[in-house]
Amino acid sequence: MLHTILIVILLAPLVGSLVAGLFGRQVGRKGAHYSTITGVAISMVLAAYVFVEFVLKGAEAYNASLYTWLVSDGVKFELGFMIDELSATMMLVVTFVSLMVHIYTIGYMDHDEDYAHDNPYYQRFFSYISLFTFSMLSLVMANNFLQLFFGWEAVGLVSYLLIGFYMKRESAIQANLKAFLVNRVGDFGFILGIALVFVYFNTMDYNEFFAQLASNKDVMIEVFPGVEWSMITLMLILLFIGAMGKSAQMPLHVWLPESMEGPTPISALIHAATMVTAGIFMVARLSPAFELSEAALSFVLVIGALTAFMMGLLGLIQNDIKRVVAYSTLSQLGYMTAAMGASAYAAGMFHVLTHAFFKALLFLAAGSVIIAMHHIQDIRQMGGMRKYMPITYAAMLIGSLALIGFPGFSGFFSKDSILMSVDASERFGATFSYTLLLMGVFITAFYSFRMFFLVFHGEESEYVKTHDIKESPWVVTVPLVLLAIPAAVMGLPLIEGMFSGEYFGNSLFILPANDVMLSLFEHHYHGVVNMIVHSFMTLPVLLALSGVFLAWLMYIKMPSLPGKLKSMCPRGYYVLDNAYGFDRLNEIVFVEGGQKLGRFFTKSVDSKLIDIGMVTNTFMAVANSAAALRQSQTGLMYHYAFVMIFGLLAMLVWTLW
Amino acid sequence: MLSSYPILSTLVWLPIIGGLLVLFAGRNNDAVAKWLSLAVAVVTFILSIPLWTDFDTTTSAMQFEEKVVWIPMFNIYYHLAVDGLSMPLVLLTTFTQVLVIASAWDVIKERVEQYMGAFLIMGGIMVGVFVALDSILFYIFWEALLIPMFIVIGKWGGPRRVYATMKFFLYTFFGSVFMLISFIYMYYQSGSFAILDFQAMQLGMTVQILIFLAFLIAFAVKIPMFPVHTWLPDAHVEAPTAGSVVLAAIMLKMGGYGFVRFSLPITPDASMTLDWLVIGLSLIAIVYIGIVAMVQSDMKKLVAYSSISHMGFVTLGMFVLYDILEKTGSLQGAQVGMEGAMVQMISHGFISGAMFLAIGVLYDRMHTREISAYSGVVNKMPWFVFFAVLFSMANVGLPGTSGFVGEFMVIISSFKANLWFGTLAALTLVIGAAYTLWMVKRVYFGPITNENVEQLTDLNKREFAIMAILAVAVVGLGVYPAPIMEVMHTSVANLLVQATTSKL
Fold first, then answer.
1. Which ranges constitute the DSSP H helices of A505-557?
2. Which of A76, A121, A191, A255 is the best substitution to test chain B (most B C-beta atoms within 10 A)?
3. What is the interface pTM, i.e. ipTM, of the complex?
4. Closest partner CB to A606 (pick from B292, B334, B376)
5. Are A159 and A259 in contact (CB under 8 A)?
6. B137-161: per-residue pLDDT in tens?
7. Is the Cβ pair B480, A598 closer than 8 Å?
8. Confidence class for position A119, pLDDT limits 50, 70, 90
9. Are A265 and A104 in contact (CB under 8 A)?
10. What pTM was computed for the model?
11. Minimal C-alpha gap between B101 and chain A (Å)
């Protein structure tokens, strides 16, 4: 029974996607959104049932094979399900956010002037987001590395298709190529990590892999002659490189800001709420392995903290409303990653959950603003929009408060648990990381409210004055409301279970010595109310509040201040404006360098060295020495060969007769 | 064995005789030529299906065997049979044959009967290569294939066809002469031309090395491997679409098949000693050729280089076994590489065929293969681009497509042999994506900048059917490769024993 339910959860969105994608013209626009929404809704309802069974009622983890993909050399490569607290939670989040985005899309695409009335585009879009839901579900439901990689690449494919959705636009198709390639760099590490699993564990199955961890703990491998590394550490770092691609950790983050070329509902679903958390999810899923390597965890911790801080800084100077939210996504992903590195898997996953809701909310609210502004995304052209869009305004406010970790809101609990855990961790790099994360809190608050004030408060801009700005239709606002509720309150019931470790139960594994969350829970946790009240005297919340205050000061009270600051430190602005030069570096080294190398190979090696040098000269030498013969032969060579071979064939036929 | 009639002979001779028939009956009557050819190809394909359904997967012994004395004086037999290594390739050939005939339907307007006839004859000969178990018979089929291909490129080819055909002919002919010499040498030692006798005979190390190198030259040219690969891009560029499809989908596989039928079982000790040579050349193919592919401005050249790069996985997967054995003391994991190599051949048959057919679809409309002449094709041909992007993703090795299966298996197996082999091979994830998707971006996406693109029409029914069949094959093999693996298991296991049993 459960098995069938799981299959339905997985396949319902796929069916919807195929209907909308392959028969788009036949079913029409309505048919496309009804079929896909039905598919995802079925998935969500059943995922809710699974959630109740596994998380609320605490059913035993379910592990079963779906079918055998192939068997080779006695190793079974299978597809299958592993359902426990971790996957059941992700399934519900993915299907819920996806459903909201599906509904919202009806309103958003209707206003999308480029393609609104060009039929198949609309259906294609619904087909893609349902296909994405299917892929993401197969990723989180997997019970083995192979399927993880299947889902991993499949979400990458859909992301590629959706970033390039406006396929006539050069910037869009440039961005999706870049996204795919950067992700592939991550996957390069990822597949090598999986290869190490195959080599040393002879299995792809998670449970069989976990069971053999203890016996492989001390295996060393020679990477260079005379240089030995711990196999587990190498494997985990390779796998984590995959996560750095998908979850956009530095230096593989470069694709995410440009992914905003895709339509806004997609930015919400894929590039904020779900897909980009796949890397975090993977680390949590493999916690029994990560626990065995301090080095790998330190690496994860520092990468996460650096991303959280440096990407947050870039959020300060963005003027495109979607880019502000995109950089905040990058920064928040850094927080989640850092939590993983501090062995606070539950805190990281908690932030994944709250972030899925408040970030989807922020994106969809931003999309609502974009609809009202007729697809203008520059926040400098906005201002004073509060009174025209009350629902969007409230949604954006709730989302922003959750994002900055305002006490009581969902993001507060998850972010605070991350900060406390990293603070309490004694791992190498923890102090450094904690400092970065703390500064990040201030920055987050500042850029979030900078955008908020610029869009909704202050004086009405020229554009807002001269155009008819109005609230979005119900298909847009209803998802906003439905997302705003969990974004505001979902932290309250969950925080205790997260800290005590009860929520995720056995689906996460933490060595007792590393379990900072449990020790914080035992010594410092005195209930939800106490946590909220107490927080007003802690550094993170004070930093967040001062960030909001500074944003108010600079953008409402004294609007001339930002310009002065910019001219005061042009060098700093230059660095941020160029996003630390990562793009330029990639451009020079990989894009131009690769092409130069390719041209050199083609012209010098293939054409000159091989063709002219080796081959032609050899043939010419032979040909010249037989110049006399050549005269009579060139045109006839083919005849000779023909006669020779057909003669042989004739002989064959004759002798067999 | 259910088949009471000589099924393999039928698969070889039906298309050849059918092809000759088309030559005569289809003269001045294109419709007859087309329909007759299609009928022959379809019947051949249907007749080849029992090879799979009646195949005994429990044995590595030869099946569907036919053996008749041919030239008693030299102990030469007309000996045909298949095992798990050759059977899938036979089916790939008969399958591709149908698509090839269909692809030329409205495209070829001159001397239709000759064109169709040549392809049918080619189909029979290629089956012959995969099923012949007498080395002389094998050699005849191997060389005979050059003739119809030579004619096809020479007659229906592009402007530089003379150069391309000469290069093609000389390379491959040059390569196989060494193979023939080896056969004759082994005949003098063993008194037999039977391939299975060659596999069983003892050979000294020096002799093995010489024979191994002779085989290597023959097969390396065919696959092709660096540095004897430069004939392939030229041949592809000049060949008509169907010619490219046959070339990429099947002819290249003959080289890969040669390694598993000849090199590894006949010269195991030399293979072990010289495996570094093949592995090195394979890695060069994967990395170096991939980088070369990136900067090609002609779509066919790009896909040709991509073919070479993908065939690198075939040869890599076939030769990592010795390093695995040496490093771990057992063959555990070697079978994954070998089976990966075999499935990569099948998959590449589908994907490269599909890629060349897709280029053909564009070429038929625009008469250019220059990437820069295109942009925004998707605006006019959405269904075509749907398929083209699917096949490109398969070329990139996306999981769920056939392209992933072989690459994945070879990467993990070669990683077991040596970390760096696996690492270099895995670079294809980035390089392959770069050259394939960059082309996709420039040709299919973007705004329309050329008024000829504005005139494009989407796939017609015939083209749609061809693309759809290939799409099903590519996705089917990617989602559920187990059945095709099952066919190979026993034969591959036997091959590994042969390849690691010393003959000294």
1. 516-524, 528-535, 539-552
2. A191
3. 0.89
4. B292
5. yes
6. 999 999 888 888 888 888 888 888 8
7. no
8. low
9. yes
10. 0.89
11. 23
